[in-house]
Amino acid sequence: MKPPLLLIGQGSHDDAYAAEFGRFVHRLRCRLDQTAADVSGGYLERATPRLSESVASLVARGHHRLVAMPLSLSRLSDDFGAAMEREQQRHPTLMYDYGRPLGPDPRVLALLAERLKDAAGELTRPRPLELVGARPRLRAVDAPAPEDLHVEPSETAVVLVGEGSTDAAANAEIHRVSRLFWETHAYDFMTVETAFVSVTPPGVPGGLERCRRLGAKRVIVVPYLLFAGGLLERVWAQALAYGAGHPDLDIRCAEVIGDCETLADVVIDRYEEALQLVP
Questions:
Q1: How many domains does the chain have?
Q2: Strands 5-9 and 39-43, how do they pair?
Q3: E strands in the chain
Q4: Which segment of 4-8, 106-110, 126-130 scores lowest on mean pLDDT?
Q5: Alpha carbon distances (Å) from 54 to 49, 84, 174
Q6: 106-125 per-position pLDDT tens digit
Q7: Which CATH number covers residue 207?
Q8: Closest Cα partner for 275 from 17, 44, 1?
Q9: 3-class secondary-structure state, position 89
Q10: Which of 51, 78, 98, 260 would suit a FRET pair with 128, their CA atoms being 20 to 30 Å apart?
């Protein structure tokens, strides 16, 4: 039997994030059940099950080696390493290997391209924020007819929005992703600018303002985030606030990457890669 896969989330008080994280863990559990590999998930903070609970459960079931996979699009923060070291102190027989972060895998960039395409094809503007189904979406009020909204890709800019960090290298990685995304999936667009939800500039308004000054008639905000939740709502709220002061600029907001089979493919490949690196 293969070692279990432990998916680690940062943790959030947001129910939408927790629900989507849980669905993704279940998806991986169904996929890897065919190869006799157990799958568990735990959070570093602010949500349950905590990482310590998930590790204790795995050890109680007789697992003393596992693959830890932080569900992160950027480089690993020290928080993940410190958390796993604490678990090893609690369980001296525990051995673990790390799976690499998910981005910028070509398949992740392709998922971003799909979200960009969906947003470009919808007559949506960030006015107002409404609840459509189980998830919030931006819906237009008194939207013009489609022919009035025709804008060429060369007049459309993209703002790729990362989470933001105190780690300069992690922030630089988001800029790298923006460039990769532009060259591989968005080269017909005017530009792909980088912005951050919090901690470091530019924020979403700063990214939108740069696009406006470059002459964009339309800007599509693409969150570089895994799951829906509070961070996505903050992205939308910042876009809303900026759009209220610039009604002539057509601003659209894309969805997050989300729970899907392609994302599961990337995680499984990282899991198998970690196993192969073990002597």
A1: 2
A2: parallel
A3: 5-9, 39-43, 65-70, 95-98, 129-132, 135-138, 156-162, 191-196, 218-223, 250-253
A4: 126-130
A5: 7, 12, 30
A6: 999 999 999 999 998 864 44
A7: 3.40.50.1400
A8: 1
A9: helix
A10: 260
For 68, which DSSP code?
E
> What's the token pair of residue 213?
């000054």
Q: How far apart are CA 43 and CA 65, in angstroms?
A: 19
Joined together, the tokens standing for residue 70 give: 């932080």
List the domain range (segments joined by +) for residue 79.
5-102+259-276
Average pLDDT, the chain: 86
| CB proximity list for 55: less than 8 A, separation 6 or greater | 6, 42, 66, 87, 90, 91, 94
Residue type, 267: V
What is the torsional sign of CA 29, 34, 35, 38?
A: positive
Place of tokens 């667009």: 189
One domain, residues 90 and 171: no
pTM of the model: 0.87
Tokens at residue 111, please? Answer: 């998922």
